Every structure is written in C-alpha cells, then in structure tokens.
Predict the structure of CBM11 domain-containing protein.
Amino acid sequence: MKLFLSVLTIIVLSVTGNAYMLDNFEDGLIKKDPAWFEFDGVKLEVCENALSVSGFAKNWYIGGIGTDLAKDLSRFKTFEMDVYGYGDASGKIKVELYDDDNGNDKIETDKKWKPTNDDLWTSEINIDWYGAKHVSIPFSEFKCEGKGNKIWDPNFENNSKGIIKLQLIFLSSTKVGDINCSIDNIQFN
Ligand SMILES: [Ca+2]
Ligand SMILES: [Ca+2]
Ligand SMILES: [Ca+2]
Ligand SMILES: [Ca+2]
C-alpha cells in the first residue's frame, strides 16, 4: 500500500508539477503578478477569472500586451493558454517570445520594434472557434525573427537572462474589424 501511494504521488506530481503558470487571472489584477503592460488600441478587462480582450483594428492591427519574464525556460517544451473565441473570424493572436542573445538583459529594437541584436520567436493563433479551447504550441514550431543567433536559447548561459519578454499581439481577421476573445491560464509546459 505504501509503495502504491508513493508511486501514485510521483505520478500526480509529474502531471501537475511541471507547468509554470504565468497567469490564471484569479487575482483579478492585470498590473500585478505578473505586471502586464498594454499598448495601442487594446481594451482589457478581467472577467470571470479570465482576461477579456477587445478593440478595433487599424489595418489588421489592434494592439497588444506584454510582460517581463527573465526566466530560464529550458525545462519547458510548449507555450500554452486557454482561448475563448466567438466563432469564425474572432481575430488572431501573435505570440512573441524575446530571446536575449547578446547577454545584456535588454531587447534593443529598430524603429519598427524589431530586435536588432536578439531573437524574436513568433507563432500565430487564428481564433475560429466558439467557446474555450486549450492551445498548445511547441517552441519548435515558433518562427525566428529578429537578428540574434537564430538558435532557441532559453537558458542563462553567456550572461543571458534567457527568454526575457512575452508579448501577445492582437490582430483582426479582417483589415477593418475588431477582436473579441478571452484568454486564461497562460503557461509554459
Ligand atoms: Ca482563470
Ligand atoms: Ca494578476
Ligand atoms: Ca539583448
Ligand atoms: Ca537565440
């Protein structure tokens, strides 16, 4: 019985103990734990313990949110979150992970906000469903933008602070349109 229980404990720990939950919005606060910053035309509200996102697009683009990570993500394989959509053409979310390659804990950017010395890893979620869906994107499926070494470096080697920032960019499904979705349980797994 003892052996059975300890085996069971190990199994339970391995299922629940691995994820790094960045935000489940249970505290109702956007600027705390973690502190999200927002930019451009995005409208945010914590509603039923999830982040409700809306806003109007100018040329597809609405705006975004971001938070500083400075985390070693090397033991994780995927970016995950729950996305609540409102059917076809609910909008798109571009996930951006900033990988510090020149070891200065900063992302230097050009006028178009593209990194000049570091990697930017991106993946796009097209929300075309109604209701909640768990989205899981392996890091290996992220595309490399920016001007770093084009290698996924999630660790603290060479004075780097690993993956130092996460941003979510919200886009409309049409050139002139809007976005309407909720996100929750943003995590690395
Ligand atoms: Ca929640
Ligand atoms: Ca919070
Ligand atoms: Ca840098
Ligand atoms: Ca890199």
